[in-house]
Amino acid sequence: MKNRKSILIVMGEPNSIFTEILSKTINKLILKKEINKPIILIGSKKLILAQLKILKSKLKFEMLENNFTDYYKLKKKVYLIDVEFKFKKPFDKISTNSKKYISNCFKKAFGLINLNISNFLINGPISKKHFLEKKYPGVTEYVFQKSKEKKSINPIMLIYNKNLSVSPITTHVPLKNVSKMIKENLIVNNTLHINQFYKNKLKKKPKIAILGLNPHCESKTKINEEKKEIMPAINKLRKKGININGPFSADTFFLKNNIIKYDSVIGMYHDQILTPFKTLFGFDASNLTLGLNFIRMSVDHGPNETMMGKNKSNPQSLENIFNLIKLLK
To answer: Which residues neighbour 96 within 8 Å (Cβ) at sequence distance 6 or greater?
Structure first.
């Protein structure tokens, strides 16, 4: 049963490039005969078909009724659970009009996960500005808070490329608040989960680097986060057998001679690690949320409103997600 668990895909923001990159990715998988699990799309049938018509593309799927229960009998095909969404145009401006629709898609997905139907949840790009309430700074936090069972004290964002992954200790928080949130127990918690992900899912003991917070890992003020929080966390993790080094100065760490020595880099805040990572890898990466009883994944880019309906978008990030799923044990 375990190997037949489905892959759930929440379609996300309806006014985005996701239908385009999804159809490109799925059709490529079908051509290569690489669909090894049932794939369940959760979104509006009318919208998907209307967008595919404009894109002059196809996406073959079978419908699942909302009262369907025999999920373990599904074949290695693409299915769709229809979620109602009223729209004027297949591609329109992003607004709060889609908020209820996206929420309903996630509710359906969480319900299936709670029934142990799936341990993989992919969502299409979502506009944080129009979808999220103030209590959810990002989709990472939204998914974590809405999930029933958690393995971590906080959501853990991991941006994964086969050559390197990066993870911020603080996720979508204003820079002025970062220093207040850098705590030893948080660093230990996140690192242990990242180490566990590599060991249990990728069958690899990772080499982990951790960055400092202050320029050159130094501070002349009374509070020095490197000495007070980061070094004690590193020492505690080493005692637990974690292969970790640091803290490193962020301004020089991402040189080639440094990053080839490590599998994962843990930084203190979002842009400290995502800016150099995206400079190196572009969108050749996948966004994962760890710390749940399933793995949530999303493409490493936004809805890209300017490219809607043009059929010119690069599906690389979504392809990476499916490539990663094949590797996960």
So the answer is: 130, 131
Give me the sign of the Cα torsion angle 141, 145, 149, 154. Answer: positive
pLDDT tens digits along 145-188: 999 888 999 999 999 999 999 999 999 889 999 999 999 999 99
Same domain, 62 and 155: no
Q: Determine the Cα–Cα distance for residues 322 and 265; give it in Å rounded to an integer.
A: 23
Whether 2 and 146 share a structural domain: yes
d(CA 56, CA 47): 14
Whichever domain contains 301, its CATH number is 3.40.718.10
Flag residues of the chain having pLDDT under 50: 1-3
Domain range for 66? 1-150+292-319+322-326
- Chain CA centroid to CA 168, Å: 13
Please give the structure tokens belonging to residue 311: 């059929």
- Together in a domain, 10 and 119: yes
Domain match, 100 and 175 both:
no
3-state secondary structure of 287: strand
Nearest to 128 by CA among 104, 102, 148: 102
3-state secondary structure (DSSP) of residue 220: coil
Residue 189 neighbours by CB under 8 Å, 6+ apart? 152, 153, 154
